[in-house]
Amino acid sequence: MAAKDPLIIRDRDEMRKWSRSMRAQGSSIGLVPTMGYLHEGHLSLIKEAQKHADLIVVSIYVNPGQFSPNEDLSTYPSNFEGDIEKLRSVHGGVDVVFNPFNLYDYGVYEGGETMKKGEEEKGEKVISCVESSKFGHETWIRVENLEKGLCGKSRPIFFRGVATVVVKLFNIVEPDVAVFGKKDYQQWRIIRRMVLCWISKEIESSYCNQVRDLDFGIKIIGSELVREHDGLAMSSRNVHLSPQEREKALSISRSLYEAKKAAENGERDCTKLRNYVAQTIQKAGGKVDYDEIVDQESLESVEVIQSPVVFCIAALFGNVRLIDNMEINV
C-alpha cells in the first residue's frame, strides 16, 4: 500500500470546517492528541483509533498551558518533518495533522502589542507560562480531585493545562472518539472523568454512558502502555537519557513487574510493595518523586490490595523525569 500523505491544517476554523464536512458525509472522526516527537507508543494510539473511527486526526501541539514558569518549553523535543514521515508509515494512514501555532489568547506580549491574526505564522516564540498578568487567557478546566495526587503534587498546574487544551481540541476537531495512552494514567483518568462521569460498578454501564461531567458526546479510549524492547516505557523524554541513565532507568519497569508478580502471588501489603520498588530505583541511582498504589478509577491511595489497583511511579534519572505504571488486577 502506498504511503498516505496527511492533510496538514494549522488554522482552527479550517480544522472545524473539515470535521463538520466529513461528518456531514457520514464519516466518524477519531482524534489522537500528541505533543509531537512521535514514537511507536503514539503510533499504537493511531492504530487503536482506526478501530473506532473512519477518519483519523492527529494533533501535534506542544501545550504551553501545562508548563509552569520554571519549566522550559523550548527544551521539549520536536521534529515535525520526522513526525510526518512516521505518520506516513502507519498502515491505513492518517487523514489530518492539526498543527496550530497557538491555541491561547496571549493578549499583550513582547513589545506591548496585541497578537494579531496571522502573526502566529511568523514563528513568534510561545512562552511557557500563560499565567502572567500580561496574557489574555483566563479560563481553565479543573478536575478537582483526580488532579491532586500523583503528578499533581509536584506539578500543581499541569493537569489544569492538560484538561484545558483537551477541551480546546475537542471543541475545534469535534471528534467522535479520542484515544489517550495509559502510560499517562492520571491524565487518562482525568480526561475520562471530564467527559464521562465515574459511577460505581453497581450501576448499569448503559446509564454510565449517559452521565457526563461536561456532556461531551465523545468516546474516550485508553490504549495500553507501550514499552521499548528492554521494558522501558516509551516516552519522548527518553531521548534525553544518557546510555548509562537509560540502563539504570530499567529499574523502574523491572521493579514494577516484580511487585505485580508478588501481589499476584498473595502479597497485598502496599507498604511492602512500595518499599521494594522505591529501594530498587534508589539503588540504581534514581530519585523517586512518588511511588503510590491507587484505586484504578478514583486514584485514591490504598494500603491493602482488595480490588483492581495501579502502581504509579515517577522517578528522576539525571535531569529526566520518567513516569510508569502497572495495573494489578487481583
The structure class reads alpha/beta
- CATH homologous superfamily of the largest domain, by name? HUPs
| Integer-rounded radius of gyration | 20 Å
Describe the global form.
globular
Unreliable residue stretches: 109-124, 197-211
N-to-C CA distance = 43 Å
The CATH topology of the largest domain comes to Rossmann fold
How many beta-strand runs?
9
Give the CATH architecture of the largest domain: 3-Layer(aba) Sandwich
Taken as a percent bin, the fraction of beta residues is 15-25%
Question: Overall mean pLDDT score?
Answer: 88
Q: What is the H-and-E element order?
A: EHEHEHEHHEHHEHHEEE
Q: CATH class of the largest domain, please?
A: Alpha Beta
How many individual helices?
Answer: 9
